[in-house]
Design brief:
Layout: H1 2-10, E1 16-17, H2 29-40, H3 53-67, E2 76-79, H4 82-93, E3 99-104, H5 109-116, E4 120-127, E5 133-134, H6 136-142, E6 147-153, H7 165-178, E7 181-185, H8 200-206, E8 212-218, E9 231-234, H9 237-250, H10 256-267, H11 271-291, E10 307-308, E11 319-320, E12 323-324, H12 328-339, E13 341-342, E14 344-345, E15 355-358, H13 363-378
Parallel strand pairs: 1-13, 3-4, 3-6, 6-7, 7-8
Antiparallel strand pairs: 2-9, 4-5, 8-9, 10-15, 11-12, 14-15
Helix pairs in contact: 2-10, 3-10, 4-5, 4-9, 11-13, 12-13
The structure holds pyridoxal-5'-phosphate.
Amino acid sequence: MATKAAEMRSQGIDVINFSVGEPDFNTPSHIINAAKKAMDDGFTKYTAGPGMIEFREAICEKLSRENSLNYSPTEILVSNGEKHSLFNACQALINPGDEVVVFSPYWVSFPEFVKLSDGFPVIVKTDSKNNFEPDFKDLKKKISPKIKCVIINSPSNPTGGVWRPESISRLLKIAKKFNWVVISDECYERLVYEGEFFSAEKLNRSEKIGASVVSCFSLSKTYAMTGWRIGYASGPKEIIEAMAKIQGQATSCANSISQKAGVVALTGDQKCVQRMRKKFLERRNHMLLLLDKLNNVICDKPKGAFYAFPNLNKYIGKRANKKIIKDTFDISDYILESSKVVTVPGDGFGAPGYIRLSYATNKKNISEGISRIKIALDNIK
Ligand code: PLP
């Protein structure tokens, strides 16, 4: 979809893009200035493989301040974006033939990380009527001795769902019972609009569950730093060390300048995070209000991240431009061609009937984009 949209743009067509998975804001200036200073000061060399100690200490300070988690720098691995942290975790933990529980709708990379480690994703449903939390009955049916890990992601991309602490704890207890490692992707931890964010490891410790949890975090979404490629993982020392060995042979360390800037991001003024969160909340509410006016579209209120995940199932099997709409790939294609709006088909996230709309764009674009989608949908017969 993004490629098609780029082609259209290059032809001068006015395309509205709801597919972006990144904040549209620039990185806050105090973080940019820290990077400039790092270069001027000569921090342009390799760092320690797992990350410079100053940055790992800043991460420990952040984890203690915001997540009530005490870690030492030896339990932290800094990587080239959180995607790399997650990849390292899968490479370190999954052996050929192992199974890994992935909840659908899932971020597209989760099953691929598992397959790249020669494992098999076991897709377990979530309950859309229940905030996209795990369908524990489905999980129970799929439990097998081959399962080694479970990947969770709250707040979720693509649903925007934020799991209640009860569900996370229930899952942690199952993981403990069957000796699975929990890989918890918490990259949207600071973008929660309703209720509170619960870190899996915080619950694990406070409720003394004793599961093995590798938590993965990103600076990309919180500080609008997607291009800086900086993320980190915290977890049991032996797992972090195994991940560090794999990273050491693949990419050595993360970018030295981004690490220096990361120290300032994590330990500096956090007002920028609140400012961006407030903007996302306004945009979410604006988009929801407009989506509510569309015919035959149901959209639950996303509680976190920056995605709305409306259900367009009622349009499947109908006709648009004389063609039958078979799935959401067809819907997204049709919306792009007829209205010049880029959306992401839910089928790619294991969620037939849904499309993902990012509201990491300004309100004017949101108004224009949704009114174009309305015209497109009203022409489906
Ligand atoms: N996890 C989820 C759910 C994401 O949506 C993303 C980015 O889109 C990432 C991880 C990766 O973030 P990073 O930019 O730190 O690699």
